[in-house]
Known about the structure:
The complex is a heterotetramer, with 2 copies of chain A (82 residues) and 2 copies of chain C (149 residues).
Chain A: E1 2-6, H1 8-14, E2 18-21, H2 28-38, H3 40-45, E3 53-56, E4 59-61, E5 72-76
Parallel strand pairs in A: 1-5
Antiparallel strand pairs in A: 1-2, 3-4, 3-5
Chain C: E1 2-6, H1 12-20, E2 28-35, E3 39-40, E4 43-44, E5 47-52, H2 56-71, E6 76-82, E7 84-86, E8 91-99, H3 102-119, E9 122-128, E10 131-134, H4 139-146
Parallel strand pairs in C: 1-6
Antiparallel strand pairs in C: 2-8, 3-4, 5-7, 5-9, 6-8, 9-10
Amino acid sequence: MMQVLYFAWVRERIGVPREDVETSAQTVADLVAELRGREERYDLAFSDMSAIRVALDQELSDMSASLAGVREVAFFPPMTGG
Amino acid sequence: MMQVLYFAWVRERIGVPREDVETSAQTVADLVAELRGREERYDLAFSDMSAIRVALDQELSDMSASLAGVREVAFFPPMTGG
Amino acid sequence: MSVSVQADDFDVGAEIIALSAGRTDIGAVVTFTGLVRDMAGGKPISDMELEHYPGMTEKALEKIEAEANARWDLQASRIIHRYGKLTPGAQIVLVATASPHRGDAFEAAEFIMDFLKSRAPFWKKEGTADGGKWVDARDADEDALNRWS
Amino acid sequence: MSVSVQADDFDVGAEIIALSAGRTDIGAVVTFTGLVRDMAGGKPISDMELEHYPGMTEKALEKIEAEANARWDLQASRIIHRYGKLTPGAQIVLVATASPHRGDAFEAAEFIMDFLKSRAPFWKKEGTADGGKWVDARDADEDALNRWS
């Protein structure tokens, strides 16, 4: 079991800020593919992956990263702090 | 008649912060030569001209500049503001 | 070294005083304050909503600050970043650096700001006449970041 | 745009507030505060005496500030430079810049500081155990200035 978080317009498109996901996905890309297959709102949120960033256990990572041991996955657009 | 000002160690070596000077010097360099000929304290103050900066009527200038129309000449070491 | 992620406003003057209080070895203090502008892309905005990732934000800011302290000769540093709904003119972010040398204080503050712009998990939504608009990341900010690598 | 040459201390927080008061179009405020350090060349100093050229100093500061405003997109700027005898920890100089863009605010503040270091008619004398010592101009300051030309 994994907690998945969404921020900014990714959150708005998916409709929830966080959810528990039961998955056997090996990598972030696998997880994204799995979510996109679920419902249209996920497919829409992840339609342009060049606009999506991912953090694993609160550290920036990338789509090819392994999910082994990861408890928290967050998807969000490029950051606009400062 | 011209007012001549001295700052920092130039002032300390010459011993006065300002003085009126009666001169017919055409350029700054002429004025320096004239002052050096006067007394040893001037000669000492102007012994290393690479360490001397000049302002004419409160604008930075250089040794070859003309003194025509100038009312105030200031000599000082390189500035150390900020 | 200290970071704060908060909804509340901050007092730049008080932060500077806190940074240098009781010390006589600091030569230079640089501060950067970011403010909400009333216009974006030529259109007026009513407010700016800052969303962030609690937990990760603090970690990211601490990492950025530690990196700045490793690269430059800093004697003290401070980062404050606000979240929530802010109105034009409001303060968003403060970066303050203290060093014996002005170059270090300036560069470290610029470096921290460049990192905050594209590596701290904040997202801005501008309140406009036709609803809200998420601010796009700017290529210029990514370029600004690359000059430090 | 405003410059002050004064013996009195200044309040950085109040100056920042004055710079941006009543405005909602400013995106970035950068401040640089220069302080008297307790050491110089590895030796303790008791005080720092700042001599200046009244009249020329104000003109030089106004010229530096006008030049910065011509080169960068500034919405407001402020320079305060003190003179007289200052003790370690005391504030010497404040440069503050406000701009829609952070890059402009940072660069303009650095530019003004680089000019103040070698083009504003101030001279520093450090109070040391063996009397006073006039601070030598540093080649590094001249180099810093040259990068803007």
